[in-house]
Give the backbone structure.
Amino acid sequence: MDTIHDLGGRQGFGRVDTHEKEEAFHSDWEARIYGTVRAMTRPGDWSIDWFRHCRELTPPVDYLTRNYYDQWLQAYAAMLVNSGYASVEEIVAGKAAGPAPDAPPPMTGEFVRTTAKNVAIIAERDCETPPAYAPGDKVTVRSAGAPGHTRLPAYLRGRRGVVEAYRGTHILPDANALGEERAEPLYTVGFNAANLWPDAEDSRDRMYADMWESYFEPV
Amino acid sequence: MTKHDSRKIQQIHEELHSHLPPEPALRAKALESLLVEKGLVDPQAIETWIEVYSEEIGPKRGAKVVARAWRDPAFKALLLEDGTKAIAQFDFVGHGGGHLKVLENTDKLHNMVVCTLCSCYPISVLGVPPNWYKTAAYRARAIREPRAVLKEFGVELDGETEVRVWDSTSELRYLVLPQRPDGTDGWDEDRLAAIVTRNSMIGTERDLGPGKGNG
């Protein structure tokens, strides 16, 4: 979907705050949201891509003006309501009106310390389709967007690039966000700056993105 | 079973937008209290996550990896070949470390990492990302005018240096391997690690040197 999150190349934004203090959290509530969200019960079908999609659907004004962890809060609140674990009224009040039916039990502090903090997302899965492209191949990115979640940024649509590397077969986010886990060949693709931007700073610069095979126009 | 319905999520967001308390601290408190009361989070797990990411998992991990790569050619070769396998030597595999790719800076090449679509970042070696990395300004501009953004970070590139910007659109995570500064011959790993900054591993800093860094 063409939601507000797809920011690559958008113009009109100001300077980057380069003097931010180097600490993990800048306020107590940022840390509380981080801890709460990481510790929260989640059913198996709350994939990373479903979370991303729910965050992308945040009203644009909130997306652009709220602090990052505050956006997390709103995305997870929406997911909790959608899954029937809490109502909007309960989240607003911070008080339970009833139990959360069928919710899996939450992780313990001990589990975080011994296990959860060392768990990586492994996105590689088996896939019967062999990769159609190899490093050095020229590809053209699909010009159409997607009806739901996608990791194909708008600034790359319709552009021509060169396969830099084949990365194996990875879970396709577009399907995973809908609860369907299937893999596709994944590539890192390089693009000339001058091919992407009318005001490219230096024609030798290159931009790279990871792209699944269905993100390309068929040959 | 979760219903993966975009329209329904959008409607819930609209309700939340209208009714959530105006202050983020109040929203945070309300959510935490509710989830604890409902038994959906264990308060001890909240404390542990905060502690782990405030103290244990942060850019000092990445700095150790870089320092070892500077001193040990075999480790550097492994790091560039298979970042995840290399950081496993330190027990640093964790969130965002499952498919780690390392990008080496050279005299003529500068690498820089962005996530234009959200905030993807090699958390298990750098900790939680800085706010600026997650801002609309950085996400919009780094991919289009990296040299202008680098200048704001104090990095001036000569006309000979090519910039490569890596947009983290998959579960691959990118870590920049900065160049070892002159004048550090014979330094041990700890001393080298102390001059490796977080930003140099994201690619918004280039020239490291004695007197800079986390140490």
